[in-house]
Amino acid sequence: MRSPIDAAILGHFVPATAGLANHAVEAAHGAFLKWRCVPAPLRGELVRCIGNKIRLRKTALARLITLEAGKICSEAEGEVQECIDICDFAVGLARQLHGLTIASERPKHRMMEQWQPLGAVGIITSFNFPMAVWAWNAMLGLVCGDAVVWKPSEKAPLCAIALQRLVEEAIDEMNDTIPAHVCQLILGEHEAGERIASHPLLPLISATGSSRMGRVVAQTVAARLGRVLLELGGNNALIVTPSANLDMALQAIVFAAVGTAGQRCTTLRRLIVHESLIDQFAERLVQGFDNVPIGHPSDDGVLLGPLIDADAYWAMQQALQAAEQQGGQRLTGGQRVEQGVPLNGFYVRPALIRVAGNLDIVREETFAPILYLMPYAELDDAIELNNAVSQGLSSAIFTDSVREAEAFLGPAGSDCGIANVNIGTSGAEIGAAFGGEKDTGGGREAGSDAWKNYMRRTTNTINYGSELTLAQGVRFTL
């Protein structure tokens, strides 16, 4: 694999064979059979140890993300911090895996629900968050009593190897209380992901990536009646109303559109601005885009690093060409930057395209810093534009009107899994459930009750009387 910074070779890895992948899954399943019986608070101690190791190596891990994924330093450090945060969250969760006690209609009966460990969980992650997405899934899975089998992106295997080493250190330090194979790592390309998705010993597959990839995974897992947790594509919109704080909105828009070189699932891709503001706001956006510092992601002051590879660059160029052919007007950006940046990397200027509405190309997710700017007249029109794409991950509105904010958040408002007011579309915290609807897959990770994805629910009825009483008044006497 090569670094997106300058295409330098970082190393080579041999993809896991079918036999090796199967062995890893079987080892994880064997570990699960022991791990599920370890008390949840003790499982939390393993996660605490992992979190402490990540905390001690935060700087080194962030540098590895920059090297392998091309993120600027502050974003890379933020991703590692996200890993630390989810570890802390999961440790507390280890003492809160609670069920319900339910009133029974039968005398001297008690009903309750329990949540039990599910099994070995398959995790498939993408290159743009090579550490955090694994942590969202793995740390919750571990405290829930599951083993973990991780297939990272073939574009970011070093990040995965580094985290796996820390996990193995933590397991070794806890001596015999932790099964040795509770966390497994499988390197490879899409064939390795297919092997995980089809394996009958993995009752849950959590997959992050494109909607196309998610459909393949969902069909494969459904064929064996397994579960999926899908975090797929986004086509996120932000509405700017006449009452908005435009200075704050501008800062949020540029970060959401340009951060991670436009390669986040929550990247802002569609900007819906009131017709009374759009001309003057377009000028400010052009100035903001043109002044974004572009360069080596490790350099101080740089806000926009490279695209992940040549394929991403050419996908961006094709999208820009399609937008112009469909009637869009390029206001700025889209060119490759070759001066003042490392050779052989694919650095680009963020592009701003003015469109009349959701053109065909606007309805597609292009993983690059392209922002489509469109006008609206009434708030209902803006919400309709927001919802009129197949993806449903993140959305936002900038307004000082309580009525507009509540309409956007209400049942007839944004149809996305994330709807924000006066902040951008990207930069979610781990304390709240993360995910979206429609082609985004419907999955939820991180906070709230996302832990239930990684467990199975059992309903128990206990009769502590001396008579057998049937529900619904049924009588059946021999």
TrEMBL record:
Belongs to the aldehyde dehydrogenase family. This is aldehyde dehydrogenase (NAD(+)). It is an enzyme of class 1 (oxidoreductase). Coiled coil: none annotated. It comes from Chitinimonas arctica. GO terms for molecular function: aldehyde dehydrogenase (NAD+) activity. The active site is at E231. Keywords: NAD, Oxidoreductase. Residues 3-458 form the Aldehyde dehydrogenase domain.
